Amino acid sequence: MPEHVSPHRLRRLAAPLTLAAALAVVALAPAAAQTPPVPVQESQAAAEAARLVEALQLPALMEIMQREGVAYGEDLRADLFPGQGGAEWTRSVEGIYAPDRLMPLFTQVFDAELEGADTAAMRAFFEAGPGARAVELEIAARRALLDPGVEEAADQQLEEMLAGQSPRLLAIEEFAEANELVEMNVLGGLNANLAFYRGMIDGGGLPQETSEAQLLADVWSQEDTIRTETRDWLYSYLALAYAPMSDAELQAYADFSRGPAGRALNRALFAGFDAVFARVSYELGLGAARYLAGQDI
């Protein structure tokens, strides 16, 4: 399979917001007359999760991810079917990344993963102090990186930090290790690539006789590339986001991440985003394949 088909950059859109990326509850529809009442315990859990959504600014994150996705869709078009698609492809990609269709999927998985976890401790950390400050900075940095000039400057800053053996870079590396950010993003990237290929096959962009073993072999051959790109982008992003934070604030964030509530949140976060980007990747592969086959989406 051609290397340019690989969508490994998709994982840039998923989890680099670390622990502050998202926390949500599945929205409750208005109850019909015959619908049994929601148990008090479930209502309390829903209210707790709703407050976490506010603290973690999930709607803002999803909107940024959609803009990132549209930009990636343009790269995908240039690689696979240049000159085709036009505004229809752009609208299709916007729909694939639409927050109102991705959030329910994310929250369904995320809410299930958090069952029994100490969500009160999570909310307490992110509603005030270092946690709240981290969320603001993460969202601001993610939005700023939509500008290619800002991304280039952030990459340059990382190179300077590496050359100067910056103590802050060491703290960022320790933070990333505490949250398994590189490993989990690499695994998610591999899963996303596999979903993309499956979409390509179903859409006729790859031979139907392509075996699962062939797909897995091709995906795993990309691991080193995905790991390098993930690490470089992640550290560049974190360095930009946390630059205004004091060492004490960053340490408090890392300490929370290592605790039971932080670990539970991290697991749920990655599970939710893995589900989202498996769907996104499959649908992008399916849509791209249809253009390659000379069809409209």
Please identify the oligomeric state.
single chain
Count of separate structural domains: 1
Overall strand count: 0
Described by strand count, sense and barrel closure, the largest sheet is: none
Global Rg: 20 Å
Question: What fraction of residues sit in β-strands?
Answer: under 5%
**Number of H- or I-type helical stretches:** 13
Write down the overall geometry.
Answer: globular
Mean pLDDT: 83
Low confidence ranges: 1-38
Q: Name the helix and strand elements from N-terminus to C-terminus, one letter apiece.
A: HHHHHHHHHHHHH
Residue share in helix? over 70%
**N-to-C terminal Cα separation, in Å?**
23 Å
Tags for this model:
297 residues, mainly alpha, 13 helices, 72% helix, globular
Overview of the molecule:
The protein has 297 residues and is mainly alpha-helical. The protein has one domain (3-26, 44-292). 72% of the residues lie in helices and 0% in strands. The chain has helices at residues 40-56, 58-80, 86-96, 99-113, 119-127, 129-144, 148-163, 167-178, 181-202, 212-220, 223-242, 247-258, 260-292. Residues 1-38 have low confidence and may be disordered.
Q: What does the secondary structure layout of this molecule look like, with pairings?
A:
Elements: H1 40-56, H2 58-80, H3 86-96, H4 99-113, H5 119-127, H6 129-144, H7 148-163, H8 167-178, H9 181-202, H10 212-220, H11 223-242, H12 247-258, H13 260-292
Protein name: DUF2059 domain-containing protein
Keywords: Signal
